[in-house]
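Action item from last week, closing it out:
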Amino acid sequence: MIVAGVDEVGRGPLAGPVVAAAVILPDKSELSDIVFRDSKQLTEKRRSRLSAEIRRISTAWFLGAASPVEVDLLNIHHATLLAMRRAIIGLSTLPDFILVDGKFLPDIKIPGRAVVGGDGLEEAISAASIVAKVYRDQYMKWIDRVFPGYAFARHKGYPTRIHLDALQSLGPCAVHRRSFAPVKAVLT
C-alpha cells in the first residue's frame, strides 16, 4: 500500500501562504533521524539538509499552497485543507492512503487518517513537515526582498514585535492576511 504523509506550515502567521507538503517515502526509508520529529524541533541548517535528502529519496513529493487572498476568503482552516488537497493531487504517484497531521482530512477521494501530533508519530508526516517548512521559510526570505521593511526573512510572517511594529508604520502589503485581527486593526 502506498501511503503519503501530509503536513502544513504557516497557519499562524499574519502574512504569506499556508503551505502543505505530501511525501511518499520508500518502503525502507533511510531517514531514521527524522522519525518522530516536528520540523520546528530541528535547526534551520538541519531542516534544509533533511529536506533535500527527503526530496532525493522519496518516491514522490509535492507542495501545495493557499495564498493570503484564499486564506482571507476561505478562513485559515479551509485554506489549510485546500493546500493539503493540492499537495496530494500534485503527487506524481497517487497514494492509496494518506496520513495527515492534525484533526481533519482534506476533501479528497483517498482514504486516510488524521493524526493529532502526527509529525511526531509518523515518519512520512515528519518528512512532509520538514519539506513544507523549508519551502515556506525560503519563500518568506524571498518575500522579504520584494517587500523590504517588514523583516519577513527574520520572523517568517509570524506576529512578532518587529513585525507588528512594521505593520503599524508601513501598513499591510500584498502578502498580508487582511482577515487576521492585527492586520485588520491597521486597516480600520
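Closing note: The helical segments are 44-57, 68-74, 76-89, 123-146, 152-155, 161-170, 181-187.
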